[in-house]
Specification:
The complex is a heterotrimer of chains A (589), B (315) and C (308). By secondary structure, chain A is an alpha/beta fold. In chain A, 36% of the residues lie in helices and 11% in strands. Chain A is globular. Chain B has 14 helices and two strands. Chain B has helices at 15-41, 59-62, 69-76, 80-111, 115-126, 133-144, 149-156, 172-199, 202-210, 215-242, 250-253, 259-262, 265-274, 281-310, and strands at residues 52-53, 64-65. Chain B starts with 14 loop residues before the first helix and ends in a 5-residue tail after the last helix. The chains are: A alpha/beta (589), B mainly alpha (315), C mainly alpha (308).
Amino acid sequence: MKKSGKALLTAAAALSISAALTGCGGSGGAGDDTTFTWWIYSGADSSYYTEYSENPAIQYTLEKGWGPEEKKLAFEFWQPASGTSADNYTTMIASGDLPDLIDAVISEPPEIMHEKGYTLDLTEYVEQYMPNYVALVHSNDTILKNCVTMVDGEEHYYALRGINDEPEDLFQGFMYRRDWIVKYGTNPQTGAAFTGGYTDPEDVDSWEDDVVFPSGGPDPVYISDWEWMFDIFTRAQADLGITDSYCMSLYYPGFTWSGGLLSCFGGGVNVWYQDENAQVHFGGDEDPFRTYLMCMNSWYEKGWLDQSFNERTSDAFYAIDSTAVRQGKVGLWDGQQSELGGRIDAHDGGLTEGIFVAGCAYPINDVYGNADCQNVIPNCVMGNGLVSGGVMISKAAEGKDLAALCSYLDYFYSEEGALIRTMGLSKDQVAEFTDNTFYGDYGLEEGAYYIGEDGRYVQSDVLVNDGGGLAVACAFTKAPGLQLEKNVDRGFAPSFQASIDRWSQYPNTGMFQGSITTNSMTSEDTKTCDDLRSKVLEYMTNNAVDFIKGTKDIESDEDWGVWCKTLQKYNYQKATEIYQKYVDAHPFV
Amino acid sequence: MAKKKVPVPGKKITWAMDFKKNWPIYVMFLPVLIYELVLHYAPMFGILMAFEDYNVIDGYFGSKWVGFQNFIDLFTGGDFPRALRNTIIIALLKGTIGFLAPIAFAVLLSLLHHKKYKRTVQTMSYLPNFVAAVVVASLVIEFLGQDGPLTLLLCKLGAENQNWLANNKVPVFWLIYLFMGIWQSIGWGSIMYVSSIATVSGDLQEAAAIDGATRLQRMFKITLPCIKPMIIMMLVLNIGLSFSTGFDNILLLYMPSTYNVADTVYTYTYRLAFGGGNANYALSAASGLFQSIVGTILLVGSNTLSKKLGDTSLF
Amino acid sequence: MAKKIKKIKNTNDDNRESSMVEHFTGADRVVDVVVYVLCGLVAFCSIIPMWHVLMSSLSDGKTLLAHEGLVVLPVGGFTLDGYKHLFQNASVIQGYVNSLIYTIGSTAIGFFLSVLTGYALSRDTKVKPIMMGLIMFTMLFSGGMVPTYMVIRALGWTGTRWALLVPGCTNAMFMVMMMNAFNAVPHEMYEAARIDGAGHFRTMSQVMLPQAMNLGSVIILNSVVGQWNSWLPASIYVPNRKALWPLQLWVKQITADNENFLNTSNPDYSRYLIRFAVVIAASLPIIVLFPFFQDKLEKGVIAGGVKG
């Protein structure tokens, strides 16, 4: 530390102090009582803009004044760095450092937040300044139940929820290599070879073929159809010289927490679910789950399942071993919309050459277990509802101009505002909004959408071709509001839409986790159930693999008995009883 | 490290005498005291959480007091004994072999004559310290996976081609974790020892050299004894810390099939507390407190032991 | 071998550690060979993975994704696309500046506190055990993330650079090491300074500290690297002030943004390179600066050795 070192340190200290004192910029015409802080769980891809307030749709709607006095509003978004949102939320709530608006993605249910004094009762403002929201909420009984809390027979609004005019498409589901079936399979009835291929080599969705499954239809329906496919995949892989792959991938614990394939063997999941008579069960020691494990064990022994599935612990359940999938080595997997059709064809002469991926529904068991576990429609599947997310307004906003804020937010429940929220700006709006160059910079001078011949809103080709984060970056998806689905044409080809539709072929009637049922629980009951849930899942995550890999014998009543006894020790009935109480009081179906 | 003091003859020093003589030292310590009290001790109320049925909304002072229930939950968990055993074994390996590796490397470096070679080796050995833990973990996964470069090397030596991280036989995972830690810290950790060795008096060395002592002899007879107090101090600190820190990387490397060897108190609690829907912060706080207390016991114990055996101690 | 050593001895005299009289025995030569080989091996093992990352960052994304095993040279052709993606985000530059401010500022404050503590603990006082206990307790126990946040918020530091400069600037380990460094300074020097009438502060800064700088530089070095690599405090204290983010938080953000690059119809495979490019971009400055530090360090050590 000679003189130069000291000078350097002094300079650094001076620099840091001056930098610390630099202000954070004004808020363009908005007063203190109309500048709101807004915590969001995540924003848009940082390659488009780093501050969410730079979002063009927000800037456009903030051009004019809102509320009875037509005041200008401004928002300061609090957006945590990727991967730190949960910690950030906890710090915020626990320290009382609240923003004015809280994104309701990971918060406690609105009733509890209000009861504990964190958020405001918005009833007065909603009824006075949010006519669009009130009308939407009352348009449908399910929406009403999810958006309104009844206190002494009166309606109370503790949150502004996001509302869909139709359930959104699922982004993930099972899909398979249909091109392999055409090439390596034969008609199960006639034994004739299949024919098929792309009608337009440039169009990734223009596939046509004459594939017939053993169950008689053009799509796989039963477990036996899947097994028939696996036979074909095995032949395909042998012919192509693929030695380091498998027919089907599986999530690393041997099951997914969201149900899905689990409920194809007599219904239910391995944790809590409700049956068709609204009775709550714990499925971990029931026959359907045992049958599921039998099937997985049998597939594993036959070499159909990924032999090292339990080693892929860092992969999400909808993107297992993506590298192998993208190289065209896998037959059937749980994937995402962007892998359907010919989209993963790399055109490099590799194994993806001429690929066609089709989505399929959950299979119905017709092979394994007893009669009760066969021919039952899956009942616990992931599905999107009509109400999701939204915002709550915290007590930090008390005294600010909530009338202006609510009028502004209500705009996004109107058709016009919902379009901006869901899709972005139209051509006319872009032309009139010259202050902002975002749309121009990304080639969206024609707007994010246009109105098609059938009167539907068609997404711009620029966004369809992008397929990535641009669509999110140019709309205001973080706003609570109406999400348009019914009248939106996202430019999906019929075969693509058909694949997606198959993922939601069976309705969810059994999984109440995350629905109005569990949202109505008191925080104490939630904690009891969550603790039990994490304990039994911990045990199952560690031990289900043994049955699938055959280390323990699923057919042996002794091994299975140990499994059941261990689970019973956790006293899961306690949670079953609690859930039953809420299923009776707040049914979600 | 407390040096052996020359006993002060005469009467005992009273507090008043001490303050009269040493007050400037206490004034100098004042900024540190303020720093510690405000930034480290004031937040200690957070430890309350370990004894509460904590929930974020009710906060530290509003949550229900449950006494030792969180600890009971932790200790009675089915897999706790296994996790404790693995924690102890991994801490022991880190505390012994992992601790000695940088010292051994520093000794090797000091035996190099050629200065440029020495500097090149040193600079290269610091590199792993700059690689983020997540990247290190992904490199380990890549190098030791099926057909990974290291796996193939091991195959040449007669091992079976396999994903080594999925191998749940004793002691595969422990060795992987140990060597990962050594790889990261061997160069960087040696800096301190290299610099201590360099300060060992040249006169002593020269005298021994003239007496005909070989370099190796000089190393063990002169250099190492000279830096022994420093080594012991670091060892005592290391033992205290090895039980309570550094287990987060395991989260990136283990999988259910290797829990029998890889699951530690930290990872076990992490799954119980954050694996389900709502995070159970109280349980994780209780586990952290448990690890800190064990760490303190180890620290004080090893300090007492080194005071008794080697006459050097940290405090 | 004997010839070689002789040659080194004769021609590279200033490259030698010391020029003292050496008696070379056969055993010494064996030791030499073993030492040189072992050191070389450690250096080789240390550099290989970093080389792998560097070469991966310069490869073609798509080929790299399918590549198995070590990347010795860029696979699928040399590209700089990873770096282009990284630096198209102008905030990265701001991140470098911020990281520099936090690293220098925090190390300076922290070193000052460590020196004060180290000096106070190395003196023979009655309060010493209490001070020591106070410091050691913080090594193992902490109130946790949220309570610390609440205290720092009460100080008014959240959302400012102070939250990143002061709270994590030093730790018990550094303080104890500094105490050790002061203890190693010969007692006579302290006595002499005191007899000359120097006050404690002057004795500490002008007499003792220069002697203790060998371990002192190690602490500075550790602090610099620790601060440069830290992102967690920033994510807690300045999450909403992106202008204050250090480089490492941008690294985390950009890596996460590009993690799911496969999740589009036409993935841009060059985005796969970003995860490698950020490792290089974040550690390169410190690796480049390192030889300079090392020089200073060695000079300090030798100076200390000569005086001691």
